[in-house]
Amino acid sequence: MPQNLRFAFRRLRKSPGFALAAMVTLALGIGATTAMFSLVNAVLLRPLPFPQPDRLTWIAYDDSAMHGNGEETLSYVNFFDYRARQQSFTAIASFRGSGQTLTGAGEAQSLNTTIVSADFFRVLGVAPFMGRDLTANDEKVKARVVMLSWDLWQRDFGGRRDLIGGSITLDGNAYEVAGVMPAGFSFPVETPAPDLWIAAGHDADDNQHGMWLNRSAGFLNAIGRLKPGVTLEQAHADLQTIATNLSKAYPEENAGLSRIVSTPELDQIVGDTRPALRILFAAVAAVLLIACVNVAGLLLARASRRRAEIGVLAALGASRGTIVRQVLIESMVLSLAGGALGVLLSTWIVGALRQLLPATLPRFESVTMDPEVMLFALAVSIATGVIFGMLPAWRMARVDPLIAMKEQGRGVTGRHRLQSGLVIAETALGLVLLAGSGLLVRSFLRVLNVNPGFDARHVLTVSLSVPESRYPGGKRVQVFDRLAEKIAAMPGVETVAAGWPLPLSNSEISIGFEIEGRPAPKNVVQPEHMGIATPGYFRAMGIPLREGRDFTDADNVKGAGVMLVNEAFAKKYFPGESAVGKHVQPGIGDGEYKSAMREIVGVVGDVKRKGLTSQFDPQYYLPWAQAVITWPGIAIRSRTDPSSLAGAIRAAVAEVDPQIPVKEIATLESRVTKAAAEPRFQTLLFGAFAGMALLLAAIGLYAVLSYMVAARAGEMGVRMAPGAGRADVLKLVLNRGVGLAIAGIALGLAGAAAVTREMAGMLYGVKPLDPVTLAVVSGLLLIVSLAASLAPAYRAAKLDPMMVLREQ
Fold it and tell me: Rounded to an integer, what distance in angstroms lies between the CA atom of residue 162 and that of residue 665?
């Protein structure tokens, strides 16, 4: 082996241009693949950081048959029944996101909190760093108990150990600090991570709108840990039996909740990102394959020049195994050197990826060049060395020593079919990647041109954390009125209003309702998305009023019950007639679970709620003064740059009440940009892979044609000596290059027809077999192939026939 290695290094030193070209080509493929694996490993492959994470199971209702939403969360009452009746889990726990204001520890700040049941940390298998775990007593009414995250404990409380058993102030209420969780612990997996976890007694104490006792008020996520020996299928059957029994026992409250969903927790967290990441990884694997094909072509061309050398070795007694081993060792040296360069390149790519990754991608913060990724890079380097080295080794081992030695000194000859086949294959792969990239580009352009239903220009949105304990009910309206008055007086401000949920926020609440004269069928729930708004909100957001009137100051708690609906709601429930003047009884309002009939006084335009590619959902709006159920987001339309108002708005909030923290100030345009982050990321990444594939395919074609010119120099000299013109030789080489490109394009179109169908979930407004895209990328690849053919063709046309014939 040492002798083989010394010989390999000596051979590569004699051909520095070849060695450098091969190593750079491999570095591109291995570097991109390693970087992409770091992303796939962090998001899809790495297990959750809990003991036996494969035993963690997500539990929800399946309401796709009834409402088409896919999954429905649990209510407290139903969750308690599941917890008491199940036989398949060591424990199940509930959790839901929330937000509280921390005071008494410096400046008031809004915290990202999670409200959890008593067994939450036991299900995850994580014990507190210090203090005690939550208990069943912490779920009782008026129990206010909290667990702190390590970061919050260090940042705001200086790591004080005497805080355990003491209290902190959240939303104006004292909460007992039961314990502190270990450093690095975070669940649920979201951005930003939870600052603390509050025992479910918080919800029992507040008991807003009957949430604690209402079976149909589903807002709890549930997770369980399977008992040893229990399979997911057995647990699902157990839960399904409970769901069936509950729907029979409570046919009205549990209408449509008779089917259960139970999936591994990691699958739930990863969600819809798995197919997209798999496609992106397949794309970068294709780039690596093209790089291997390129280097294999270079080695084949080099092998033809070494036929005499191999013939001498064979004549002196070298076996085929010896020759194969020597060639594979040379290939391995190249691949490991290329892998080392690729690791350096991947480190830079990973850094760039972390800047581009959308915040919606789960677990993106753990994308790093860890030991697992380094081992992957090593494995890929070794595998590529074997892959691209095997074919040249096989060809060289089959050399007849007598024939090879006769060819010595007569220049380079040989066949080019194998090299041509490799060029066709990498051209086909390049076309598939270009087709996918082209589809994503067209899809992304469609996303950017989507009408979200509002005018994002010159609008600033402000999110505040206003504790209900400090400002209950109507006092919240008074606080907003004082703040709106101050903001409206600022230079450049046109309109100040508030509404919830803000567009593209992915926040939602679905509340059932009844239409006057149309009683809902028994045991059928009829929910739609609900929103709240103050007078002027739709004008501030640029949401058009299609019919009727907007909310006014008269639509307060003393006024008649009114509501607005969007166009999708009006078309669904009042097709062919005006919705204005109709009466609807929503299941919420005025602090009561069920309110009186409300008159529809206007119809507003549809707005995208979840994302730019989501559908326009039916939605109805209540005046905030008549349904003070949450603090809405503030919308400010300005004649100038709205971001310039941020400092003045913070000062205005502090003047109204310094105990109200500002959670977020962002322009509406930045929300639109954020909503397009995921398709932008997919397009940029796939486009980069396609660009690399195009470059490598062009290099491969150039190398093959250059080798062909060198190998057929004698033939061309013979053609030119009797009078063949340089244009004829130029045409000969160009025809060869274009012919290979066309063959590769034809094969690639067949591959694209099969592969792009798998990308349907990543596309918006574009069909997988879009003829315009396929035509454009085929033309682009043909032009690049023609450009790659020009240099070898020009070099062939410049050959001196007398010089060539003399050398031959």
Answer: 36
Q: Please, are residues 409 and 339 in contact by the beta-carbon 8 Å criterion?
A: no
Residue with tokens 């971001």: 643
Least confident of 256-270, 579-593, 703-717: 703-717
Helix (H) or strand (E) holding 426: helix 417-448
Are the beta carbons of 597 and 583 closer than 8 angstroms? yes
760-776 confidence digits (pLDDT tens)? 888 888 998 899 999 99
Distance of CA 573 to CAs 498, 580, 584, 609, Å? 27, 12, 11, 20
The pair of structure tokens assigned to 248 is 């029979």
Q: Give me the sign of the Cα torsion angle 48, 52, 54, 59.
A: negative
Local confidence band at 724 (pLDDT 50, 70, 90 cut-offs): low
Structure confidence by residue, pLDDT tens digits, 607-657:
998 888 888 989 999 999 988 878 889 999 999 999 999 999 999 999 999
- The span from the CA of 34 to the CA of 285, in Å, is 10
Which residue type, as a one-letter code, is found at position 132? R
CB atoms within 10 A of CB 144: 16
Among 555, 538, 660, CA closest to 606: 538
Q: Is residue 96 within 8 Å of 115, Cβ to Cβ? A: yes
Q: How far apart are CA 194 and CA 175, in angstroms?
A: 17
Contacts of 700 (CB under 8 A, 6+ apart): 290, 293, 294, 297, 422, 423, 426, 427
Reading phi first (left if > 0) and then psi (alpha if -120 to 50, else beta), residue 363 is in: left
Positive or negative torsion for Cα 419, 420, 423, 424: negative
**CA gap 520, 514 in Å, rounded:** 6
Nearest C-alpha neighbor of 650 from the set 483, 536, 467:
483
Contact between 72 and 218 under an 8 Å Cβ cutoff? The reply is yes
Judge contact between 788 and 741, C-beta under 8 A.
no
CB 99 within 8 A of CB 662: no
Cα–Cα distances in angstroms (integers) from residue 583 to residues 519, 532, 694, in the given order? 12, 17, 61
Amino acid, single-letter form, for residue 37:
F
Helix count and strand count (H, E) for the chain: 24, 22
- Sign of torsion, CA 793 798 802 807? negative
What's the sign of the alpha-carbon dihedral 707, 712, 717, 720?
A: negative
454 C-beta neighbours (distance < 10 Å), count: 24
Q: Tell me the pTM.
A: 0.82
Closest CA to 226 of 50, 52, 48: 52
Burial class (CB in 10 A: 0-12, 13-18, 19+), 173: middle
3-state SS assignment for residue 598: strand
Query: Bridge partners of 533?
Result: 499, 623
Cross-strand pairs, 518:
515
Contact 635, 499 (CB under 8 A): yes
The span from the CA of 350 to the CA of 370, in Å, is 11
Residue 783: which residues within 8 A CB-CB, separation 6 or more? Answer: none
User: What is the distance between the alpha carbons of residues 553 and 535, in angstroms, rounded to a whole number?
Assistant: 6
d(CA 625, CA 602): 17
Q: Where are the domains of the chain?
A: 2-43+273-448+678-807, 64-258, 471-658
How far is 352 from 362, CA to CA, in rounded Å? 18
